[in-house]
Amino acid sequence: MSEPCERRKQLRDLNQKAWGGELLVVDSPDTSLKSNMAVLKKLSSAITTETQNSLIDSIKRVSLEKYLDELIPATADGLLSLKKKDTAAAVEVLSVLHQRFASRFTTKLALYFFRSVEDFKEPEHLPVLGTLLRLYCEMYLVDLIRVDDSVEKSKLPRYLVKSDRPLLLAYISQLLSRHANNTKLLSIVSGFVKKFDDVLLRENEFLSSSERLSLIKLFTKYSEHICKVTENTHQEISSLENQVNEISRKTSKVPESLEFDLKEKKDEFVKLEAYSEFAHEVFSIEKPSLARETESTVKITAIPGLSESNRWESEEQRKFYEEVPDISEMVDPSLLLRREPDIEENRAPKDALSTFVEELDAATTAEEVDDKAREFWQQEMYTKSAESRLYRHACSQGINSKAFARFLCINRNVLNSLIQKIENKADAALKDQSMISHKDYNMVRLYCEMANFNLVPATKFLHVLRSLVVNVGEGAGLDLLTLFFDYSKFTILYRPEFSMAVNNIIHLFQSVTSRLQGDRQKAAQAFLSSLAVAEENVKVETARPKLQFLDYVLKRALQNQVFFPALLEFEWDPESYSKIVDFFTHPEMITYDEIPALVSMLKYLGERDPVLVAVVVDGLIEEFQSGFELDDFRQNRKRMAVASYLAQLAVKRLITGALFRTLIKYAIFESVHGDPSNWFWANMVCLFFEISKKHMPLELTLFDYHLLLQGEPPLDLRLRVIKCFESRGVARANSVAEAAKRISEISKAARQMPESEPDDDEETDQGADEVSDSEATEDTDDSETEDESDEDDDTESELDENMINVQLERSIQSEFDSMLAASLKTSSSTNARPRVRQPVGAVVRKEQTENGANKFTFLTKSGNKIAARKIEVPDHVDFVAEQLSNAELWEQERDRIKDFVLNQHE
């Protein structure tokens, strides 16, 4: 037998003797007021394990006979502050008091416990009740809780008067029934069962079998009730989540009250679920049936189960949108032929048209709308002012969009200009609303209803959807997207020709949602989950764990470069290699801010596999060209991402400068073949110049020329172009002729000085540096400006140049002497050039012209061809003076070295 059970048995025997009259006798008790009051004060303050022995000694010494009326209240006060760990100490102290005073003390204390369940009825009293429950049970087990004949029934609580149940069972039953739905009681009950499992769950001498089984049955019934509460709470949480998601999906905000209620319910559910698990193990009851919805991590890639037959909610709705007659079949065609919108309004009075509009808004069925359309022509209401009145009504508040859209569909062949005008108005309104918080619900709904009747071109409607997805994190983008799916859900999801485009839009929406934060991300995720109309109708993309992990590492590498080496650890089998290539050739799947990181990653992996860079660049250039060939505005975002990607590749020197300039020229020249009103090419060229800071005068002038040819660009583009030219310190031409003249001058200068690739590759830059070092000369001011720009903007290029191997430097140096001699030989000077290495400054001295100017010879290399160009500069120019001074110093140094060498040989 364990030590607690042994002590319980000892106390039980002593207490039973006290009930029988064998009381504890105190010889010469202390009757002083001070001693008795000190014991009462100790009892009322607290009973703890530390004060147990001293308190028991005091009780055995003092009289307390005259203070029995104060003893019960003092003890009750002490028990209120009792802690669970001190329960055993309290039982020891109460047992000593019982052994001294028997029923005079114990029955009154028992009444205090009986009434505690009713006195402490508020939820905040439950912690106290939990401690009293443990103490009550301990006292019951050691026979301190009894009701004998001396207790009047009027003093007993009602739940004991008409019940013959054991006192422990009655007390626990009353406690559980009074606080059955309070989750704070769960920890009390579970703690109580764990504490007294030896007497509740196993045969023992303290509780009879019938009493023990009754207690188990009571706790089992309570646990079953808790399981039902758990199920109900789970349903309430689901309902609240749906409510919150619906509100946040439409407003992009979560109401604080609902969010607080949801949090409270979830906290309660955690406690209920934990107790249900405990009760299942202890009392073998069934767990609550919770329809758990695991957090979905799948991607919706297709909706193949949706069909045209499922498109409408009812047959009546289908007929309203699909069975639309043409007005030519409803009225006399002569009425349509006589329509003249430019004539004066003399057929129908204004009040008749206003009445017609009001009645059209009141129409709810297809037949009513058809009747109003027929009436419009039969009463000859169509005039110029009538069309304006209908347009104003389309933009007004409170319009019946559904009826008005059917009216427009019936008249689609004769009111085409009005339909186009409303469509343009809606496009402009949607563009403005996507960037601000204001929403014109009537215009949005009318636009969606027109799309339901196929009055809006499919490409334009899908483009608006795609734009809203891109701007879902800004302004009212998510709200507008939600309205689109509310008003045109069946058209978007169920129209067969929309299926592929909608799946692509969903892919894009998933990508954008993953990068949102806070409430916007929650709202976007809720909206995304609502698109999965049924699990069986959604095709789930599955991938091997290896590819899933590779995809994870690639995405994390965009955020942190420490993941770069992990990519080299992968075994690049064909499947993984295809995944990597696909990742690098689709910049539209990431944000613009992540493109530089994508380029850095490609350069890092290119060191292992240079072919990867070639494959990616080849695919991007093909995508770049095909974008101009197709000229599909729906691909503009992708095309701009590819353009930004190519520009970043040029900055990192993963593509040559010549290729990059060719791409710019390609984009400029394609403006001739496209729509003059489409300025997408200009935005792309501006992006090229904004990302790359290299000196490209020819391309910049060509850009200026074609902008002037196209006419005046929109204001936003005009500001972007001005900023682009100002950042390079170049003024725009005033006319097309001036721009053409500039192009001619730059081309002529390029032919005379074939330096078409000043920043084309590292070899050209390095060769220019070596000319300057070996001849102690400097480039022209233009070249200096270009080099400084390269150093400032292409810091990584400098690191690459420093890593050129020494052998290449030596080979270039060895070829320089022959290059210089050959270039000097081809110059137009009449004086014979010595076939030795000479500095430019020495040549300048011998080539002074009659007017005192000096000729500088500049060398350039294009492929295997060497060309020379002479520039005359007066003596008083600082640049010339410095070169002549350097040449003299070089001559003096050469003579000194020659003399030194000759003296050594002598």
UniProtKB/TrEMBL annotation:
<keyword id="KW-0963">Cytoplasm</keyword>
<feature type="compositionally biased region" description="Acidic residues">
    <location>
        <begin position="756"/>
        <end position="801"/>
    </location>
</feature>
<dbReference type="InterPro" id="IPR016024">
    <property type="entry name" value="ARM-type_fold"/>
</dbReference>
<protein>
    <recommendedName>
        <fullName>Up-frameshift suppressor 2 C-terminal domain-containing protein</fullName>
    </recommendedName>
</protein>
<dbReference type="InterPro" id="IPR039762">
    <property type="entry name" value="Nmd2/UPF2"/>
</dbReference>
<feature type="region of interest" description="Disordered">
    <location>
        <begin position="748"/>
        <end position="802"/>
    </location>
</feature>
<dbReference type="Pfam" id="PF04050">
    <property type="entry name" value="Upf2"/>
</dbReference>
<dbReference type="InterPro" id="IPR007193">
    <property type="entry name" value="Upf2/Nmd2_C"/>
</dbReference>
<feature type="domain" description="Up-frameshift suppressor 2 C-terminal">
    <location>
        <begin position="786"/>
        <end position="903"/>
    </location>
</feature>
